[in-house]
Design a protein that fits this description.
Elements lengths: L1 H24 L13 E7 L6 H9 L6 E8 L5 H6 L7 E6 L8 H12 L4 E6 L2 E3 L3 H5 L8 E3 L10 H22 L11 E4 H6 L15 H6 L6 E3 L7 E3 L5 H13 L6 H19 L1 H4 L5 H22 L9 H21 L5
Parallel strand pairs: 1-2, 1-4, 2-3, 6-8
Antiparallel strand pairs: 4-7, 5-9, 6-7
Helix pairs in contact: 1-6, 1-10, 1-12, 6-13, 9-13, 10-13
């Protein structure tokens, strides 16, 4: 039993060490090269009356020469259609209204697909209605198109004074740590639609969203799995490209969101599933078998090495991602990830997701 625990421990030590190396190798300096091609920014909205004005203010303030904003109103029943109607005369804003979702289509995926079909430009950039991109977002994100077909960005949650917000920010960072480092080591499996860009040619070449159009979640990560090892993917960690978003404000909202996200992982590629299964089960067995493993005197040595590597790896990664205010909460992450792997991941696997 000790040697099985030791194998899990050694895997996790390598995982955190290589993850740190991967994130530290990504350049974050300001892009001086300009990307002069027009881009289309696509945002899907459903009952976003509270967010639409702030979003449009952020998008219209972009320091970028040529871009259009495509707002896809997906069956909104609040004041969203009225607020959008006030912008119909702006030349770089295109509004698409969806009244009905066709059978066998996820509502958001149908909305995204319509936005892409109606877009005028080859280069597509995506965010969500509850996000606040910085004014240099497009200017600093798009130069990555010069070396890649897909750009994966980072999207932290805004800080508020609640425990659910603290946990959501911790888990959001840890998820980013995993998918960013995996991408650097050529195992791309995930991105977040709050800060993602790719070419229209790539989208249609690989079948777009239609290959998984019926699944409620996965408009971002399932596309990444679809093009895995078939395209050039760049991770852009310039702080000017970070897109702030709002975390769930209640545990119920958080659980709904995470089970929906995890549900998409059952449709990941075999390579992605093996990688995530190793991380998931090694973490569970490492802490689950700790009471037995600790009876071996050598376990203290490996436990110490594990904690040093993990805490240094995550701390330096938090500094890189401008999340230094979370370093003190790493012990909470330790406990929370074990509970997350034990409870939320199985819920996502077996429970039918809901919006």
């Amino acid at each position: 039993m000790f040697y099985f625990w030791l194998a899990c421990c050694l895997f996790l030590i390598c995982f955190y060490f290589l993850g740190l190396i991967a994130i530290l190798t990504i350049k974050t300096q300001k892009q001086n090269e300009k990307f002069n091609f027009p881009v289309s920014v696509i945002v899907c909205l459903h009952n976003e009356e509270k967010n639409i004005n702030n979003l449009l203010e952020a998008l219209l303030s972009q320091k970028y020469n040529q871009f259009e904003i495509i707002l896809v109103d997906d069956r909104s029943t609040d004041k969203t259609p009225f607020l959008l109607s006030q912008h119909t005369n702006q030349p770089n804003i295109q509004i698409i209204t969806i009244s009905v979702t066709p059978p066998n289509w996820s509502p958001k995926k149908w909305a995204i697909h319509q936005g892409i079909l109606k877009s005028k430009n080859e280069y597509l950039v995506f965010t969500d209605a509850d996000c606040l991109p910085k004014s240099n977002w497009l200017q600093q994100l798009t130069p990555s198109f010069q070396k890649a077909d897909v750009i994966i960005g980072y999207s932290p949650f805004e800080k508020t004074n609640s425990f659910v917000n603290l946990w959501a920010r911790l888990e959001n960072f840890f998820t980013a740590f995993q998918y960013i480092s995996a991408t650097i080591f050529k195992i791309p499996y995930m991105a977040v639609g709050r800060n993602l860009a790719y070419t229209k040619e790539l989208y249609f070449k690989h079948g777009g969203i239609e290959n998984h159009k019926n699944l409620l979640s996965g408009d971002d990560d399932l596309l990444i799995n679809q093009i895995q090892n078939k395209s050039k993917i760049d991770v852009n960690l310039n702080p000017e490209t970070f897109v702030i978003s709002y975390a769930p404000t209640s545990w119920n909202a958080y659980l709904r969101q995470k089970t929906r996200h995890v549900s998409a992982s059952t449709s990941y590629s075999l390579q992605s599933q093996i990688f995530l299964a190793l991380v998931h089960f090694c973490n569970l067995f490492f802490w689950g078998l700790m009471p037995l493993a600790i009876q071996n005197s050598n376990s203290i040595i490996f436990l110490t090495i594990f904690l040093i590597v993990k805490y240094l790896g995550l701390s330096f990664s938090m500094l890189k991602l401008k999340q230094s205010n979370l370093i003190w909460a790493l012990p909470i992450l330790e406990i929370g990830v074990f509970i997350y792997d034990l409870v939320i991941v199985p819920l996502g696997w077996f429970k039918k997701p809901k919006w």
